[in-house]
Structures are given as C-alpha cells and as structure tokens.
Amino acid sequence: MSTEVLDPGIDSEIEFDAPAESVPQYLTFVVSGEVYGVPIEYVAEIIGAQQLTPVPDSRPFMRGVINLRGTVIPVMDVRARLSMEPRNVDERTCIVVVQLDEIVVGLLVDTIADVIDVPPTAIEAAPRRKTASARDAIVTGLFQLEGEVKILIDLGRLLHDAPTAFDASPGDENEGS
To answer: Is residue 109 in a domain?
Structure first.
C-alpha cells in the first residue's frame, strides 16, 4: 500500500492498493496420457479437430494446414513432435492455436484439460537425462496439482522448427529438437 498527499496544504491522504502480482495461468492439455501446459497468454483459440490439408515433403510432426477464417495455419502434431506413438483423431481431439511473436501454429492435442494458475514457486526444474529426447528439449518445468504431475512446455523450443517444417526433407523429423 502507498500513501500520497494530494495537496501539501490539505491534511488528506489517499491510500492506494498496490497491484497484486498476478499468478501465471496455463492452458493444460493431454497428450498420450500426460498433462502438458503452455502459458495462456500465447493461446489464441481452441478449435475442434478438422480436416487437415497435407503438405508434401514436410516433416512428420507437421500434419498439414487448416484454413481458419481465411488464414492458413500450419498444424503440428504434438505427439509426433515428442516422438510418441500416433493416435487417431477423435471427437475429443483439439487444435490449440498459439501465437509466439510472428509464428502462428495449431497444436494437435488429444484433449483439453483445464486453465490453471501456477505460482512460479510451485514449478520445479525438469530432470535432465543423459540421453536427451525430443520431449526433454521442450520441457521447462514440472509442477504437481492434486497429486498429478503436469509438464510445462517452452513454446519457443516446441515451435522452433515450425516456420521451416514444410521445407524439410522427409528424413529430418526430429532435427532441431
């Protein structure tokens, strides 16, 4: 709280509440039974899965493109990006449209979980393994909520290859991870 005197000739004081520090929010979604989270500030919208137009000679984790209200958006299969087993798209599958700087990409995920507040003090560093995987490269931290571990994703690392993924040769699926 701060106190400010409005006029030195008047003995009145007004007290202002200092703005509370906001707790970061994360959109959580499920991929292969694990719950992942991305900062909500980068989420433009969530749409149901729809027909994707494949792009020849793109990396396997890029499933294709969609036309969203006149804008062509590339769609990344998060399962494939994390080197997980493929899964058929069903009625629960969603596309999370994210924007990071000038990059707009749809993330194909199994289902949406929730929007949750995660205090920075609750986030633990992600353990590093001797043999790094595609998943290790994008995980920034972990936290527990109601006894369940949730995994925070670094969108910058996840989307690292997205702008050029359609220019890649077919054998380069995890390059840059």
So the answer is: yes
